[in-house]
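Submission sheet (multi-component)
Chains listed below:
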Amino acid sequence: MNSAIMKKTMYFFVLPALLFYCIFWIFPILKLFQYSITDYNGYVQNFNYVGFSNFKTLFKEEVLMISIKNTLIYTAITVILGNIIALLIAMLLNANIRAKGFYRSAFYIPTLFSAIVVGFIWSYVYMPEEGLIASFFTKIGLAGWDTNFLGSYSKALYSIIAVDIWKNIGVSVIIYLAGLQTVPQEMLEAGRIDGAGKWKLFRFITLPMLATSVTINITLSVINGLKAFDFPFIMTNGGPGISTNTLIFAMYKMAFTDQLFGKAAALGIISFAIIIVITIVCVLTLNKKEVSA
Amino acid sequence: MKTESRLKRIGTHLLLLILVFINLVPLIIVLSSSLRSPRNMTNPLNWFNEFTLDSFISAYTRMNFPIALWNSMVLTIVSVVFVVLFAAMAAYPMARIRSRTSKFLYMFFLAGLVVPGQMVLIPIIQMIKGLGIPLGQYTPILMFITCSLPFSTFLYTGFIRSGVPEEIEEAAYIDGAGLSTRFWKIVFPLLLPVTVSVIITQGVWIWNDYFFNMVFITKTIDSPLPVAMLGFLGDQQNPAQWNVLFAACILCALPLLAMFFALQKYFVGGLTMGSVKG
Amino acid sequence: MKFLNRKTLVLMLVAMMLVLGACSSNTPNSGSTNATNNPSNTTEPPTDASEAPVTLTMLVSGAKAAEGEDFELETLPRLVKEKFPNVTLEVQKLPDEQYYTTVKTKLGAGEGPDIFLVFPKLANMGAIEVAKAGYAADLSDLSFWDRVSPAAKNDMSYDGKPYAVAKGMDILGTFYNKDLFEQAGITELPKDWNSFLEAAEKLKAAGITPIVMGDKDPWVIQFGMYQLAANSVYPTDPEFDTKLQTGETELTDEKWIKTINQYKELYDKGYVVKSSLGMASAQAVQQFVDGKAAMIFTGTWDLPGVTASGAAQFERGFFSLPGNDAGQPVYASASTAAGFALNAKSANLDVAKQVFEYLYDAESPLFEAWVASNPSISVFNGVELQNDIFQDALSEIQSTGNAFYFSNQMWPAGVSDVMQAKFAEIIGGQKTTAEDVTKAMQDKYKELYKE
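Outcome: structure written.
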């Protein structure tokens, strides 16, 4: 098992995956670095090297700051709110013995729908005056309330964040539920006998046992939040104005509408850096917490 | 004591039902609207005020459902098969060998998670073109495999390390089994739980992907379900016929829903794989 | 013994072959068919394009027809097949945003479709840009240009050569509900800005929403803006956009400030439905069609949508938004519409050209089908106006020549987006001013305009 020959030949197993990965992922990413210092417009094949001017322009424009802000808000809310809600639901389900499967499935169903479908459905829900929420308000007599969700500078971002949470809650619930079920009843009983209240029980027994689930859920949600693209793309086109632009969406727009691929690549590099930094910070913090738990 | 906990249980059920209801309300509306005829424009909150399959029929024909379904199936199944094979194979040395190289490889693959597909679209196409691979019906498979590798190798590596004891392999080695035999006949079958997990997590996103399919597929007839749905979007010349639209949405989700209900146990098992094993 | 697992190696090789094989064993794509065409004598369309089967790919934007046969997706391939039995036309239709992404990506990668949609002049995917980049084929050698209006041909040309055949001419205007106008006591159509404001006020007083717009889809902001620009910017300075290119003038010019303020006025006075920013254009059209609003700004291309049957039955009318001062003539906003272009690098260019000849041949059934399904006003000689509703506006334009094109056709792609994004802030009640909008537009223009 530990002979040198074994080790070396084992590496062959990695080859197919590595090949694909390098050709179709790594190399294009490197190309991105190259393009970020050119004025390539993604369309005409000739381009010039322009040093860091793309980066400089980006830092001067408001798109960069607004996208970063939006992306951070998007991530923070989907991660924090999403996980808390999922955990609460999982706890409710855990307490109840029967029909767990039914509820679990019910919460998981939205995940099975494609983002396009979810985007459609919620565009309809949010439609002013005739959409689901608007009709509901009218029905219960709140006709005057402002139902312009996707068209409002203040509400649009939060509206699409809600959709993201809605779609992904099922997965978190399932993972938390499974985690909760590994908490040994005896420990909880022992705690209760010792006189610990609900909160203490949760904080010192349940939560530590959930450590892995929490880490995985949070890391995944953080990465997905930072990469947010689908819902701004499908539901608001980054608008109104640029109030729902996220980093990746802004990059996409720059590449395909403005035809400034070099600049978009530069934005991509910046986004990339931000995503990596935040992910690393996140993972390190969670790992520390996990170890101490 | 008993009645108290009974009340508690009823209360919990109630709360859950309300939550589920709120959660599923959009889908209920979708269902009810899809069961109306295409021209029925009454308030969607009047649930189920009509019961006809006209919208479904309209959506079914306009989307070319059977063909789109077939396309989705081919793309997803082929991609998933390769992902499972490649990722499991790659995880093997990364899990078993404790060296700097293997650690580097592990991180290398994992790092790929951080990059979104939209970022690298144009260089990827140039790459594909440069290699002489034509853009067509099966090209998205390349991307599906590539994008699934990071997460899948992560799952497999974790599981092999903690879930497949080295002793088993040592025993086989002593019995004279070669490397390839050891992997395929012993380790791989033991990886079933993770394989299921990979199939489900990757299968769902691949099935639902619209982005790569949209860009790589040239002919409408090759389009899988999500792209076929795009045809209902942005109806500038034809004001949205919401009922038909919703019928189309349901048709698209139907295959996955069916699979989910049939294989619920595996779905849940698969999803919790990574977290509980830890 | 070498544990160099032959088995594993073979497995991997086979796996890779399978994958690569799967990718390349497609049904023929644009690049992979043989093109044994006879060099076509371009003065007369031959009946048989070639002996070998040819597949042409086509990509256009739009939505699939709700009822009946869709022209591009169904009629076109069918009639092409009838005429040229060996030619199979594969058409893909995508919504606007996706169209731009897909077609550009494909062209950039050298995998573009044989036929695609091109817009006039400098618009996004405009004739000038595709010609310069070498993606579109020079169509000067096609025979029907003498039947096409010179303006339409020019708008699709670069360096004197045409690169696309325009679908026709589109007019941007105001569709209105004749019944609602009567109800509010509006007896004649407004012919200047103040009268328009008065008419809108009358509607509001009668409890009718004057205007509905689907501003959630940001491009619709252009629909009102350009009609106003046609009156407030260009009549006194027709060369404005050319001067922009040389730097003689800027978008911050007071004419544009006036234009933007005029459009802003409509929103400030509450003439446009409050929730427009949250409404997609499809929903806005639906509101109009349901009789919930009296007017909607859009163009001739939207005729099918605007005349679809809805909750209310009423007669529609069409007029140009009079942004002019009293006493001045009303200028219409009209432009060449988009049209089909051919891929210069196509392996089947000759076959595609023959298809074009057939399509635009006045005698062919394909031409007739095309004209019948085309909401734009045809720019081919001898084709009658299909839709009476545009008769008045069209006659005005033809007799007085008082019309200007859509501004975005002379701006680099991206400037109109900034205009839309910034103006949306105004609609959304932010503190943005017309000056802010024009400044942002000018900055973007400078960034994007390269000669």
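Remark: The domain at 170-335+388-448 of chain C is CATH 3.40.190.10 (D-Maltodextrin-Binding Protein; domain 2).
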